[in-house]
Specification:
Layout lengths: L7 H8 L4 E3 L5 H12 L4 E5 L2 H12 L5 E5 L5 H15 L4 E4 L5 E2 L7 H27 L3 E6 L12 H24 L3 E8 L6 H4 L1 E2 L2 H14 L5 H13 L4 E4 L1 H13 L4 H15 L4
Parallel strand pairs: 1-2, 1-4, 2-3, 4-6, 5-8, 6-7, 7-9
Helix pairs in contact: 2-3, 2-9, 4-5, 5-6
């Protein structure tokens, strides 16, 4: 996907011969980031828990002429992520870019949530950001580099029927904002960027955990066919433009931008009118609770 600020030359200058690490690379924004960076000739180090999807991304990136290494890995496993960071840095040098991108969700009311899966969401969406940041940051401190942590528009304001997801994304944003200030105060050469995508047409809705099969059908059809949003390639281009522009917070999509402005201006008062608009939809999802 074309973006006026995201050129092969600018990406190569940003990376200066170093590679990019991408978690959650098996699909969606992770795959699109891998393909775009690979097209610029930047080596990509890819990981995902889904080995088949990861292999598809690795082939797609390799077909664009870049060096590719794919590793099946669970970002919730802190020891595994640390070992991975150390090994990849030993073999390839410190990366220029680290995208902590892996994410999962569940659609259910708070009272109906699968508690074990809610904890898994926190472990992947928040823990994956923490683990990836802590593992790679020491390698980036000396030579500089960018860590790009994925939050969400629902890390700006909570989403009905996605309480665990929203909590994880708020946590990822808070952790990253705190670290941004820490790195500035310490004079570090490493930088943190926070990505807050709005609706991006990835597989996340289809792969979400649902308590009710009827809700799965309703939500996935609405997400895939009726809800406006960005293509993953456009989202990847927006993310890379934000990194090149050195933006602390990278908002992806008009919906994310509007929500960010609304939250900043109206604070909690934004949720009441939105609830009036979205209430009928979520009453259907939540079964009338």
């Amino acid at each position: 996907m074309w973006h006026p600020r995201v050129t092969d030359d600018r990406l190569r200058r940003l990376c200066a011969g170093r590679g990019a690490v991408i978690t959650g690379a098996g699909s969606g924004m992770g795959r699109s980031l891998a393909n775009r960076l690979a097209a610029a000739g930047i080596p990509v180090l890819l990981s995902d828990v889904d080995s088949l999807a990861l292999a598809e991304t690795a082939k797609s990136a390799a077909d664009r002429g870049a060096k590719v290494e794919a590793t099946e890995m669970d970002v919730a496993d802190a020891a595994a992520v640390t070992a991975y960071a150390d090994e990849m840095t030993r073999r390839h040098g410190a990366p220029a870019l680290v995208f902590n991108n892996a994410g999962i969700t569940m659609v259910a009311s708070v009272l109906d949530e699968d508690d074990d899966y809610a904890r898994r969401i926190m472990a992947v969406n928040f823990g994956g950001v923490v683990n990836g940041t802590q593992a790679f940051l020491p390698h980036l401190e000396a030579g500089g580099g960018r860590i790009v942590n994925t939050s969400s528009a629902f890390g700006l304001m909570g989403s009905p029927a996605q309480s665990a997801y929203s909590a994880s994304k708020f946590a990822a944003r808070g952790f990253s904002e705190s670290l941004q200030e820490q790195l500035r105060g310490s004079g570090s050469r490493a930088r943190i960027h926070i990505v807050c995508p709005g609706v991006v047409h990835t597989a996340i809705a289809r792969r979400a955990r649902y308590i009710d099969p009827a809700v799965r059908e309703y939500v996935t059809k609405g997400f895939d066919r009726r809800l406006p949003g960005a293509h993953p390639d456009a989202a990847a281009a927006a993310i890379l433009a934000g990194v090149l522009g050195d933006r602390d917070r990278i908002l992806v999509g008009i919906d994310a931008r509007a929500l960010d402005i609304g939250v900043r201006i109206l604070d909690g008062a934004l949720q009441r009118p939105l609830a009036t608009v979205t209430g009928p939809v979520f009453r259907r999802i939540l079964g009338g609770r």
